[in-house]
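Posting here for the record, re: magnesium ion.
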Amino acid sequence: STPVAAFCALSNAAKSGLLVKGAEHLETLAKVKIMAFDKTGTITTGEFVVADFRPLVQDDHMTLHKLLYWVASIESKSSHPMAEALVKYAKSYTVEPKPDDVEEFYNFPGEGICGKIDGKDIYVGNKKIAVRAGCATLPIIEDDEMEGKSIGYIFSGSVPAGIFSLSDVCRTGVKEAIQELKSMGIKTAMLTGDHQAAAKHAQNQIGGALELVHAELLPEDKARIIKDFQRESATAMIGDGLNDAAALATADIGISMGISGSALAMETGNIILMSNDIRKIPQAVRLARKTKQKIL
Ligand code: ADP
Ligand code: MG
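Prediction output follows.
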Protein backbone atom coordinates (compact mmCIF):
# COMPACT_ATOMS: atom_id res chain seq x y z
CA SER A 1 0.00 0.00 0.00
CA THR A 2 3.00 2.34 0.36
CA PRO A 3 3.47 3.06 -3.37
CA VAL A 4 -0.29 3.40 -3.73
CA ALA A 5 -0.45 6.05 -1.01
CA ALA A 6 2.45 7.90 -2.63
CA PHE A 7 0.85 7.71 -6.07
CA CYS A 8 -2.47 8.99 -4.71
CA ALA A 9 -0.67 11.87 -3.02
CA LEU A 10 1.12 12.87 -6.24
CA SER A 11 -2.08 12.73 -8.23
CA ASN A 12 -3.98 14.72 -5.57
CA ALA A 13 -1.20 17.30 -5.64
CA ALA A 14 -1.40 17.51 -9.43
CA LYS A 15 -5.16 18.06 -9.25
CA SER A 16 -4.63 21.05 -6.99
CA GLY A 17 -2.03 22.53 -9.35
CA LEU A 18 1.23 21.26 -7.85
CA LEU A 19 3.57 19.32 -10.10
CA VAL A 20 5.65 17.14 -7.75
CA LYS A 21 8.62 15.57 -9.55
CA GLY A 22 8.74 12.43 -7.36
CA ALA A 23 7.19 10.97 -4.20
CA GLU A 24 10.44 11.46 -2.25
CA HIS A 25 9.92 15.23 -2.45
CA LEU A 26 6.65 14.97 -0.53
CA GLU A 27 8.47 13.01 2.15
CA THR A 28 11.08 15.77 2.45
CA LEU A 29 8.42 18.49 2.37
CA ALA A 30 6.78 16.88 5.42
CA LYS A 31 10.01 17.53 7.38
CA VAL A 32 10.51 21.16 6.35
CA LYS A 33 10.60 23.65 9.23
CA ILE A 34 11.93 26.71 7.37
CA MET A 35 10.62 28.18 4.11
CA ALA A 36 12.45 30.93 2.24
CA PHE A 37 10.56 33.00 -0.35
CA ASP A 38 12.02 35.08 -3.14
CA LYS A 39 10.30 38.50 -3.40
CA THR A 40 9.93 39.66 -6.99
CA GLY A 41 7.63 37.34 -8.95
CA THR A 42 7.09 35.05 -5.95
CA ILE A 43 5.70 37.09 -3.05
CA THR A 44 4.85 39.87 -5.51
CA THR A 45 3.21 39.51 -8.92
CA GLY A 46 6.22 40.73 -10.89
CA GLU A 47 3.77 42.75 -12.98
CA PHE A 48 5.64 46.02 -12.77
CA VAL A 49 4.45 49.50 -13.60
CA VAL A 50 7.05 52.16 -14.38
CA ALA A 51 6.57 55.11 -11.99
CA ASP A 52 9.43 57.31 -13.16
CA PHE A 53 11.99 57.22 -15.97
CA ARG A 54 14.40 60.03 -16.76
CA PRO A 55 17.76 60.82 -18.31
CA LEU A 56 20.27 62.18 -15.81
CA VAL A 57 21.62 64.74 -18.22
CA GLN A 58 19.25 66.21 -20.76
CA ASP A 59 21.06 67.56 -23.80
CA ASP A 60 21.22 66.90 -27.53
CA HIS A 61 23.20 63.75 -26.91
CA MET A 62 20.89 62.26 -24.33
CA THR A 63 17.19 62.54 -25.00
CA LEU A 64 14.42 60.60 -23.30
CA HIS A 65 13.65 58.85 -26.59
CA LYS A 66 17.22 57.68 -27.10
CA LEU A 67 17.39 56.36 -23.56
CA LEU A 68 14.07 54.54 -23.97
CA TYR A 69 15.28 53.02 -27.26
CA TRP A 70 18.45 51.72 -25.62
CA VAL A 71 16.75 50.35 -22.51
CA ALA A 72 13.74 48.81 -24.29
CA SER A 73 15.90 47.21 -26.99
CA ILE A 74 18.22 45.59 -24.46
CA GLU A 75 15.43 44.65 -22.02
CA SER A 76 13.50 42.97 -24.86
CA LYS A 77 16.25 40.31 -24.74
CA SER A 78 15.69 39.72 -21.00
CA SER A 79 13.04 37.53 -19.36
CA HIS A 80 13.13 39.51 -16.10
CA PRO A 81 9.72 40.75 -14.85
CA MET A 82 10.97 44.36 -15.07
CA ALA A 83 11.83 43.97 -18.76
CA GLU A 84 8.23 43.68 -19.93
CA ALA A 85 7.21 46.82 -18.02
CA LEU A 86 10.09 48.84 -19.48
CA VAL A 87 9.33 47.71 -23.04
CA LYS A 88 5.66 48.62 -22.57
CA TYR A 89 6.65 51.99 -21.14
CA ALA A 90 8.86 52.77 -24.16
CA LYS A 91 6.02 51.85 -26.53
CA SER A 92 3.75 54.30 -24.69
CA TYR A 93 6.21 56.96 -25.91
CA THR A 94 5.98 55.44 -29.42
CA VAL A 95 9.52 54.11 -29.08
CA GLU A 96 9.81 50.71 -30.75
CA PRO A 97 12.39 48.36 -29.18
CA LYS A 98 14.88 46.92 -31.67
CA PRO A 99 16.45 43.77 -30.19
CA ASP A 100 18.35 43.17 -33.44
CA ASP A 101 20.28 46.40 -32.88
CA VAL A 102 21.76 44.92 -29.68
CA GLU A 103 25.09 43.12 -29.79
CA GLU A 104 26.86 41.25 -27.00
CA PHE A 105 23.94 40.88 -24.60
CA TYR A 106 24.84 39.80 -21.06
CA ASN A 107 22.60 38.94 -18.14
CA PHE A 108 23.90 39.36 -14.58
CA PRO A 109 21.35 37.59 -12.35
CA GLY A 110 20.39 39.69 -9.33
CA GLU A 111 22.08 42.76 -10.85
CA GLY A 112 20.82 43.58 -14.34
CA ILE A 113 21.79 43.37 -17.99
CA CYS A 114 24.22 44.83 -20.51
CA GLY A 115 24.29 45.16 -24.28
CA LYS A 116 26.08 47.06 -27.04
CA ILE A 117 23.86 49.46 -28.98
CA ASP A 118 24.76 52.55 -31.05
CA GLY A 119 28.37 51.51 -30.45
CA LYS A 120 27.99 51.98 -26.68
CA ASP A 121 27.97 49.51 -23.80
CA ILE A 122 24.69 50.15 -22.02
CA TYR A 123 24.12 48.74 -18.52
CA VAL A 124 20.68 48.54 -16.89
CA GLY A 125 20.15 47.28 -13.36
CA ASN A 126 20.42 48.00 -9.65
CA LYS A 127 23.28 49.58 -7.68
CA LYS A 128 25.43 46.51 -8.25
CA ILE A 129 25.45 47.04 -12.01
CA ALA A 130 27.40 50.28 -11.41
CA VAL A 131 30.42 48.16 -10.53
CA ARG A 132 30.06 46.19 -13.80
CA ALA A 133 29.84 49.47 -15.70
CA GLY A 134 32.99 50.67 -13.94
CA CYS A 135 31.24 53.66 -12.38
CA ALA A 136 32.71 54.72 -9.05
CA THR A 137 30.36 57.63 -8.37
CA LEU A 138 26.82 56.32 -8.53
CA PRO A 139 24.17 59.04 -8.32
CA ILE A 140 22.85 57.75 -5.02
CA ILE A 141 19.11 57.78 -4.60
CA GLU A 142 18.04 57.34 -1.01
CA ASP A 143 16.18 54.03 -1.09
CA ASP A 144 13.55 55.19 1.39
CA GLU A 145 12.80 58.27 -0.72
CA MET A 146 11.34 55.91 -3.28
CA GLU A 147 8.44 54.61 -1.15
CA GLY A 148 9.58 51.03 -1.49
CA LYS A 149 9.73 51.05 -5.28
CA SER A 150 12.41 49.11 -7.13
CA ILE A 151 15.09 51.41 -8.55
CA GLY A 152 16.93 51.03 -11.84
CA TYR A 153 20.10 52.72 -13.06
CA ILE A 154 21.25 53.15 -16.67
CA PHE A 155 24.91 53.60 -17.64
CA SER A 156 26.41 54.46 -21.00
CA GLY A 157 29.85 52.95 -20.58
CA SER A 158 30.82 54.03 -17.08
CA VAL A 159 28.77 57.24 -17.23
CA PRO A 160 25.40 57.39 -15.41
CA ALA A 161 22.81 58.11 -18.12
CA GLY A 162 19.43 57.61 -16.51
CA ILE A 163 17.36 56.41 -13.62
CA PHE A 164 13.93 54.82 -13.23
CA SER A 165 11.64 53.36 -10.61
CA LEU A 166 8.92 50.75 -10.82
CA SER A 167 6.55 48.96 -8.50
CA ASP A 168 4.47 45.83 -8.28
CA VAL A 169 2.14 44.43 -5.61
CA CYS A 170 2.01 41.34 -3.42
CA ARG A 171 0.07 38.34 -4.72
CA THR A 172 -3.36 37.65 -3.24
CA GLY A 173 -3.34 35.30 -0.27
CA VAL A 174 0.36 35.62 0.55
CA LYS A 175 -0.30 36.97 4.05
CA GLU A 176 -2.77 34.15 4.82
CA ALA A 177 -0.41 31.51 3.42
CA ILE A 178 2.52 32.76 5.52
CA GLN A 179 0.36 32.91 8.65
CA GLU A 180 -0.89 29.39 8.00
CA LEU A 181 2.67 28.10 7.59
CA LYS A 182 3.56 29.76 10.90
CA SER A 183 0.62 28.02 12.61
CA MET A 184 2.01 24.76 11.24
CA GLY A 185 5.34 25.41 12.97
CA ILE A 186 7.20 26.62 9.87
CA LYS A 187 9.51 29.65 10.03
CA THR A 188 9.35 31.93 6.95
CA ALA A 189 11.89 34.28 5.37
CA MET A 190 12.20 36.60 2.38
CA LEU A 191 15.37 36.44 0.25
CA THR A 192 15.56 39.17 -2.37
CA GLY A 193 17.98 40.78 -4.79
CA ASP A 194 16.06 44.04 -4.49
CA HIS A 195 17.10 46.80 -2.08
CA GLN A 196 16.19 46.99 1.65
CA ALA A 197 13.38 49.55 1.40
CA ALA A 198 11.63 47.59 -1.38
CA ALA A 199 11.90 44.40 0.71
CA LYS A 200 10.50 46.19 3.75
CA HIS A 201 7.67 47.62 1.64
CA ALA A 202 6.59 44.12 0.54
CA GLN A 203 6.88 42.87 4.14
CA ASN A 204 4.64 45.75 5.30
CA GLN A 205 2.06 44.96 2.60
CA ILE A 206 1.61 41.50 4.15
CA GLY A 207 1.39 42.88 7.68
CA GLY A 208 4.92 41.90 8.66
CA ALA A 209 3.98 38.22 8.40
CA LEU A 210 7.48 36.98 7.51
CA GLU A 211 9.88 36.28 10.35
CA LEU A 212 13.09 37.18 8.50
CA VAL A 213 13.87 39.56 5.63
CA HIS A 214 17.21 39.54 3.75
CA ALA A 215 17.74 42.03 0.89
CA GLU A 216 20.36 42.99 -1.73
CA LEU A 217 21.37 39.38 -2.27
CA LEU A 218 23.27 37.89 -5.18
CA PRO A 219 22.33 34.37 -6.36
CA GLU A 220 25.19 32.88 -4.29
CA ASP A 221 24.08 34.83 -1.19
CA LYS A 222 20.63 33.26 -1.44
CA ALA A 223 22.21 29.79 -1.62
CA ARG A 224 24.51 30.57 1.34
CA ILE A 225 21.58 31.68 3.52
CA ILE A 226 19.71 28.45 2.62
CA LYS A 227 22.78 26.51 3.81
CA ASP A 228 22.70 28.45 7.11
CA PHE A 229 19.01 27.60 7.53
CA GLN A 230 19.77 23.93 6.85
CA ARG A 231 21.97 23.82 9.95
CA GLU A 232 18.73 24.39 11.88
CA SER A 233 16.32 22.16 9.92
CA ALA A 234 15.16 20.96 6.52
CA THR A 235 14.54 24.04 4.35
CA ALA A 236 12.41 24.82 1.32
CA MET A 237 13.08 27.63 -1.16
CA ILE A 238 10.33 29.15 -3.31
CA GLY A 239 11.40 31.24 -6.31
CA ASP A 240 10.88 32.20 -9.93
CA GLY A 241 14.05 33.81 -11.23
CA LEU A 242 17.41 33.01 -12.75
CA ASN A 243 18.85 34.41 -9.52
CA ASP A 244 16.98 31.76 -7.49
CA ALA A 245 18.34 28.69 -9.29
CA ALA A 246 21.31 28.11 -6.95
CA ALA A 247 19.12 28.50 -3.83
CA LEU A 248 16.43 26.21 -5.30
CA ALA A 249 19.10 23.57 -5.96
CA THR A 250 20.67 23.96 -2.50
CA ALA A 251 17.40 23.72 -0.54
CA ASP A 252 16.05 20.34 0.58
CA ILE A 253 13.00 21.23 -1.51
CA GLY A 254 12.91 23.74 -4.34
CA ILE A 255 9.49 25.07 -5.28
CA SER A 256 9.27 27.13 -8.46
CA MET A 257 6.59 29.42 -9.81
CA GLY A 258 4.80 27.89 -12.80
CA ILE A 259 3.22 30.47 -15.09
CA SER A 260 5.74 33.28 -14.81
CA GLY A 261 8.83 31.42 -13.63
CA SER A 262 12.05 31.32 -15.64
CA ALA A 263 12.79 28.05 -17.43
CA LEU A 264 15.88 27.50 -15.26
CA ALA A 265 13.89 27.88 -12.03
CA MET A 266 11.29 25.40 -13.26
CA GLU A 267 13.95 22.92 -14.28
CA THR A 268 15.70 23.22 -10.91
CA GLY A 269 12.59 23.05 -8.69
CA ASN A 270 11.38 19.74 -7.22
CA ILE A 271 7.83 21.04 -7.10
CA ILE A 272 6.24 23.44 -9.59
CA LEU A 273 3.43 25.68 -8.45
CA MET A 274 1.41 25.61 -11.67
CA SER A 275 -1.10 28.29 -10.63
CA ASN A 276 1.44 30.68 -9.01
CA ASP A 277 -0.89 30.55 -5.97
CA ILE A 278 1.20 30.68 -2.76
CA ARG A 279 -1.80 29.35 -0.78
CA LYS A 280 -1.14 25.95 -2.36
CA ILE A 281 2.07 25.69 -0.32
CA PRO A 282 0.55 25.16 3.16
CA GLN A 283 -1.92 22.79 1.44
CA ALA A 284 1.00 20.83 0.00
CA VAL A 285 2.68 20.62 3.41
CA ARG A 286 -0.53 19.25 4.96
CA LEU A 287 -0.81 16.70 2.16
CA ALA A 288 2.84 15.72 2.59
CA ARG A 289 2.46 15.27 6.36
CA LYS A 290 -0.71 13.19 5.90
CA THR A 291 0.93 11.00 3.25
CA LYS A 292 3.91 10.38 5.52
CA GLN A 293 1.60 9.11 8.26
CA LYS A 294 -0.01 6.71 5.80
CA ILE A 295 3.32 5.39 4.53
CA LEU A 296 4.85 4.83 7.99
P1 ADP B 1 14.14 39.02 -6.40
O1 ADP B 1 15.31 38.34 -5.81
O2 ADP B 1 13.32 39.79 -5.42
O3 ADP B 1 13.27 38.14 -7.26
P2 ADP B 1 15.02 40.07 -8.87
O4 ADP B 1 14.96 38.74 -9.48
O5 ADP B 1 14.08 41.11 -9.39
O6 ADP B 1 14.80 40.10 -7.33
O7 ADP B 1 16.53 40.57 -9.08
C1 ADP B 1 17.14 41.46 -8.21
C2 ADP B 1 17.39 42.82 -8.78
O8 ADP B 1 18.23 42.76 -9.93
C3 ADP B 1 16.17 43.55 -9.24
O9 ADP B 1 15.52 44.22 -8.17
C4 ADP B 1 16.73 44.53 -10.24
O10 ADP B 1 17.18 45.69 -9.59
C5 ADP B 1 17.94 43.82 -10.81
N1 ADP B 1 17.69 43.26 -12.16
C6 ADP B 1 17.78 41.98 -12.53
N2 ADP B 1 17.50 41.82 -13.83
C7 ADP B 1 17.20 43.05 -14.32
C8 ADP B 1 16.82 43.55 -15.60
N3 ADP B 1 16.67 42.76 -16.67
N4 ADP B 1 16.59 44.88 -15.71
C9 ADP B 1 16.72 45.69 -14.65
N5 ADP B 1 17.07 45.28 -13.43
C10 ADP B 1 17.32 43.98 -13.24
MG1 MG C 1 12.22 36.67 -8.42
